[in-house]
Amino acid sequence: MQTSKFLFSSKFVARSTFQVDHKLQWFPGHMRKGLRDIGKVLRRTHCILEVHDARIPFSGRNLNLIKRLVSNKPIILILNKSDLLSAEFRPLIRSQLMEKMYKNDIHLEDIVFLDSIAANVKHAGYSNQFLSIILNSIEKIPNTIDESDFSTEEKSYNLLVMGIPNVGKSTIINRLRNVYLNKAGKATIIGAKAGVTKAVLERIKICDYPHKLYLFDTPGILEPSFNRNENNPTNSPEQFMRCALCGTISDEVIGKELIADYLLYWLNKQQRFDYVDFLGLPSPTNDINEALTHAAIKYNQFRPFKNLETGVQELKPNYIPLAEKFISEFRKGNFGHVLLDIDIIKTT
Ligand SMILES: Nc1nc2c(ncn2[C@@H]2O[C@H](COP(=O)(O)OP(=O)(O)OP(=O)(O)O)[C@@H](O)[C@H]2O)c(=O)[nH]1
Ligand SMILES: [Mg+2]
């Protein structure tokens, strides 16, 4: 396959900018409620664990929202799903994010890379060092916490886990409980779709010693702040699509074919052509319809439709499940490790 001769064109951007733009207004009701609930438990919170998807360290984080919610509390940023990230970018991501947060007056205690589903605890990143980062930051807690709720209780600390949908917040809570408290089972539900946690839950204990630590799980909040402005100079419709590709917005809201189209665009731009074999293509293409039509042949995915002119039943490629198959392959990491924000890191 002569991939080097393949010329990438920006067909995706021209075709879909309009479609993406009008979807930026979307903001589901449970997120509004989630935001209100977060506001209520914040006064009982000593430290914030912000969870984000490591493949999009810059896209989808709403710094205005973080500033508004976090105010003077210590914040630790967890970049989860690091098993899917190209590992060589970790140091650059860390330094550029630290700098960006500093410029935005957000004081990050630390950035931790986690692979929260790894079977091996050390490999997952839940070392004693991770616990130490949390414990060190709660020592710096300002004296503004309302402790009235706990006057009859033994001293304990509350951490609020927040972030956009589907980044692994609930998975991390279950795993922390499992690792540091040796408790099996799940205290909070997880799921592969965005919007699994619908409300701020009761406190979940994750550690007994040297301090009692409790976590509040919260629904994922993704505010539509993707328009470029002073505080978010790089947030754009393309970054919105990266969030969609990582499953942080329900696939149905954006449309699976549009997400697949963006995936094809991104893979081509990075000259990563593993998709060619997967979709049964003879060579790279930037046409999603052509790509999914070949996939229909390879996976025998057609659906019947009636040709209104001839009245004859014909077969058409079944685009939506094929788009889903393509996206799912990417989400499993089968097109390799990625940094979707690679252009941002190179130009920052
Ligand atoms: N590859 C990978 N998948 C992960 C990791 N952590 C969580 N997941 C998967 O990501 C999906 C979402 O996990 P949840 O824990 O439900 O995410 P959440 O942030 O609580 O989602 P909402 O409650 O919907 O906001 C699940 O399918 C998890 O198995 C990780 O480190 N790596
Ligand atoms: Mg959840």
UniProtKB/TrEMBL annotation:
Lineage: Eukaryota, Metazoa, Ecdysozoa, Arthropoda, Chelicerata
Domain CP-type G: 32-224
rRNA-binding listed as a keyword: no
Gene Ontology annotations of biological process type: mitochondrial translation
Domain of life: Eukaryota
Residues that hold GTP according to the record: N80, K81, S82, D83, N166, V167, G168, K169, S170, T171, G220
Function: Plays a role in the regulation of the mitochondrial ribosome assembly and of translational activity. Displays mitochondrial GTPase activity.
SUPFAM superfamilies reported for this sequence: P-loop containing nucleoside triphosphate hydrolases
One example GO MF annotation: GTP binding
Protein name, UniProt field: Mitochondrial GTPase
Gene: MTG1
Cellular compartments per GO CC: mitochondrion
